[in-house]
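Record 1 of the preview.
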Amino acid sequence: MRYTPDEDDIMIRRLLPLAALLCVAATDPEPQSPAQLFGPLFDAVQMAQVFPDGKTFVDAVPKEDPAAILAAYRKAMPQTREALKTFVEAHFTLPAAGNGAPASQEKLGLRAHVQALWPVLSRPAQPPEPGSSALPLPAPYVVPGGRFREIYYWDSYFTMLGLKVDGQQAMVEHMLDDFVSLIQRYGHIPNGTRSYYLSRAQPPFFALMLDLSDARDPAVLRTRLAALRSEYGYWMRGEGCVTATQPACEHVVRMADGSLLNRYWDARETPRDESYREDVNTAKTATGRPAAAVYRDLRAGAESGWDYSSRWLSDGKTLATVHTTDIVPVDLNSLIWAMERGIAQRCATLGDRGCAADFTARAARRHAAIDRYLWLGAQQRYADYDWRQQHATPVLSAATLFPLFVGTASGAQANAVAATVRARLMAPGGLRTTGNRTGQQWDTPNGWAPLQWVAIDGLAGYGQRDLARDLAERWLTVVDGAYRATGKMLEKYDVEEQVPGGGGEYPLQDGFGWTNGVASALLERYPALAKDR
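->
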């Protein structure tokens, strides 16, 4: 389904108060996920791999009340894969097989192609749909594409970068309204707008998204600040239960000196609905660990956005050794520092001095903790930290650039990281994700648009302009080359061989939201690189 905002839509949005846009009641109960709703039927369908992609069934819409479907299932008890598929097709409406953008049939340049994709990837407001896993949204939004049929949290920041420079400011504001609505209803922005994503978030970019807004209405600013503070409260909810003897609670970790940092975490310890069979099979191969612990760490890895990477693997290579909840990640803590700074600045703007002072102090404490625990001066990098083992992890990753991106690094630290990038993270096609080849999609040889932007923007902000431009040129060359060869924008790319990427739990997806956004933003920043593109 395509959505193209017209002048009437834009005018209506300007005239309606924000409260009217946020039309879903704040008292809405949290919906059950498909696994919770369909129990034994869900288990049978996913474990039999009735559909090649486990996300197909969880995105299907029941044609009747779930209780009636379960009663019919218990009566029929289909045993074979074919019988299960027939049952599902009779009782559910399956999502369309293809949700990506069609390959370009015109010889458009890269920037023009991206601009032509925005209406293809745009969707209207999502009304409530009985039985569906889709969460209602009050305003239009942009999806990544492919199997990703809903709005995603951290993806959206990079998509919005492109929307902004491509003259789609109304859509940027719409998406911010959607995120405010999600926070008001659920207390946080979930991984994506599906019921099965509600137990976790994703890297918290909402504070940085607000910097892309043109809103000046004090009422809108106050509403969005309240949402941002609620989002912060979600990430810091464990603050009240961490102690010296229980150093980790929910997303919060109490470090040895008493300072507070954060980790990725998920409220559930069951297999992910959308990757149910994969998680069950991974847990079976985890030696000496309860399945629930493996599921929690897999879910936390999904919250990180880096699902999956050697960053989260205790042996550096095997998914069954995933221990995400033991890791204090540098990217997450950089983003929460930016959130604290953003809240302080917005409170100051609105005249709330107490709030401004509180969050300024919180940011200062986090900055000191990042320098103490996550900065490895001798190795010229920022690192993740294993709070159980009380030492930094050995994995060098593109996350080392997040302190530069948000502005918490010193000049000397930024110069050291730049040297490390030149020596170890530069690939022919852009920035390496890590230096490890594991078969996981967030390791070498894959490169990802969001990490390219974080690196380029962070390096440029510290005066490393030549290195930043070099990375931009390498990345755009890979993206443009794949576009010329396939007519598509892709989710990830092999930055070693400069071809489409691979690995992970599902086939390579096209569309693709954040690749489009970063391409437009880079071409806007470096117009000379737009030649022949």
